[in-house]
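Case 611 in the screening queue. Each case pairs one protein sequence with one candidate compound; here the compound is pyridoxal-5'-phosphate. For every case the pipeline is the same: read the inputs, emit a complex structure as tokens, and attach any notable structural observations.

Predict complex for case 611.
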Amino acid sequence: MTHEEWSIDKSRLVYGLNRNDLHFLDIDDEGRLLIRIGSETITVEEIIKRIETEDEERVGYTSSFTLRLPQLISFQVLKLRRTFESAMNQTGYSGKFRAIYPVKVNQRRDFVVQVLQTDPEYGLEAGTKAELFLIKSVLEKEKHRLIVCNGAKDPEYLDSIAECIKEGYSTAISVESLYEARMIVERFDPKTTDLVLRLKPYLKVRGHWSHSTGRDSKFGLSIHDLFDTVELLKSRDFQGSVSTILGHVGSQITAIEDFHVFAVFMTRIFQELRDMGLSNLTTIDFGGGLPIDYTSTHQPNLMELYARSLLGGVKEELGNWPDGMVPDIMIESGRGITALGSMVMVKALEVRSVFPSIEGMDEDMKREVDEAIESMASASSVSELLGIWNESQVKKSWLAESMSDLREKERALASVRAGIRFQLSELESADLSSDAHLERLWYPDHIVIGNFSVFNSACDYVLVKQHFPVLPIIDLHVRPETTVRLVDITCDSDGEISQFHRKETEDIWFTQDFRPLTMTVAGMGQGIPVGSLENIHGSYFAIALTGAYQDVIEMNHNLLGDLPDVELLFTKEKKWQVRWLSGAESMEELLEEMGYVGFDIDEDPYMSEND
Ligand SMILES: Cc1ncc(COP(=O)(O)O)c(C=O)c1O
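Case 611 output:
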């Protein structure tokens, strides 16, 4: 066990702050979480105080909310272009870089407009008819920007696309099946139509959504359909209409090197299609997939590695096509652009202890506990320790005879578990590579009730086991006292975010009550470290990196709707401000959605602490 002094640097490492995709979060000398954007720093506590104070400009709101950080969307948009352009310059790549934002990742107006305001060349991608209408509304005065229409198409969607083309929007239609191709050649004029052929990438990449690739993928043209589609297009004079091929290998592809083989595949098809007569084919659209470092453990330059991996693959394959054309590279990153743009700020309503306080333990029981703990002192390995624990009378005699007997047994259990944790922390670190038994002993003794719904604010945690970093906003300068589970106010036991990513250190670091904060091999554990239990009630936890997908897939579980939205702004004088964007969804709105009308209840459904 490491008995050295604690330091803020250690906390930074434990929570993954001040680096990679959490580069904008840090800790001040008093242990407060702070946001650093450019040269501006501001503690989260200050932001909350601003919102809580009621005066002419401020709203006096005192509970959970979503903090929007539009500056970080701009940061990512600029970084993506710079990263690609600089990699292209350095490797002498003569094709151009182009980017479109798939609005499905976050359709909020403040997100979409932020992307557009940051880069005058950025285009947008629609996945449905409704998204196309959204895009038309934001691009009314900028019709030169590219719109790519993806997604399954029915005649109405195609009519809307035709309308867009007629109105002067630069609109491209992605062809996702032979059936769609047939509808398109019937309805469109080859001279004014821009087509994108969406292909199934016939390869396997490693990642959460890697089933987006391969023969069985839901999206894109199979290889036999591609041949038939090209024949059809040629027969109807559409061979000159195809400007782009698109492949999407799935989201959050952390095996960056897999993009290389994807790029080889796409470039080969690109050249073959040109040889087959698609002579206006100029662009390869590599879809999304750029990962976000939710655990702060990947290489710090993921975006650069991604760009280099793709360009490397394209260049390698171009070597086989001496007369081939150098394609322009298009990227449809969504997660990579928006994830940093939101944080859910969860107010802690209550702290509950799973075990009774050990004060006042019955003398006989205390003796039994002391004996059990003493017998463990001689253990020199984890298995020996667990063996003694399994034999222990305290563990065996769990069946209680009465309520007060049960309380005594719970006290005893808590004490013995604390004793074992201490003994474990004294053993050689390498022995503690986590096993299920140990995780039970380290499982948090405290539950924090947060005024939120995981389903509504961070649904991917439940749906696809997506990890999000959860951070207390105070007491980050001390060795954490213990770990807690953050549970929500829904009546669903899945409504809890307790996963914590333990970083790798040579010696394991522990909380004050001997739960591991780090491991000799990094990995997921349960329990969010907190500096001081006493200060939690009324404070907040930040769930970071929630800007991608979470707003758009949210649910209305328990009729708890959207949290209020607050935006952090910097004025020209570099002063920061918070802007109240919208309140929580009212109970009236939520009830109406379910078909119950006639209510007049403007209140939000979250817990109130007002008396
Ligand atoms: C066609 C297409 N492009 C882009 C994206 C965005 O992917 P990501 O969020 O990984 O950037 C998706 C997401 O699934 C997609 O289906």
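Case 611 observations:
- The mean pLDDT is 92.
- The CA atoms of residues 64 and 190 lie 53 Å apart.
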